[in-house]
Amino acid sequence: MEHVIAVSACLLGYHCKYNGGHNLDIVVVEKVKGMKVIPICPETLGGMETPRIPSEIASDGVTVMNQKGEDTTLYFERGKKASLLLLQSEGCTKAILKDGSPSCGTTTISDGTFSKTKIPGEGITCKYLRANGIKIIDVTEEGEL
Prior knowledge:
alpha/beta, two-stranded antiparallel sheet, single chain, 4 helices
């Protein structure tokens, strides 16, 4: 059976970050070699453009606001659902996500003040994928994916 894994597209070098850049991670690329990789960017899947105004999860833990004070929650809600549907359609049960992101944060997210301060927490998509049976893989862990 073919190993299938979803990976935050920015970690694979896709230019989908809010600023138009990427977060290419060679360790991730090496770890997923030989696997069927499904690149996902929940923010673009949810309809956001690249580049875009940065967004962070507000202090209520649910609302997502951009740096201009506009509510972007709907994009994040659409993106998490589209991500899960894509993974399910591909028979994918594991994902490597970009920590710190308002969508993909696995252990930390920004504190909602746009001060670059990280706090413990999960991104909107990470939390949703976990709740729906997707195993979130920490790339710093040793062993098989």
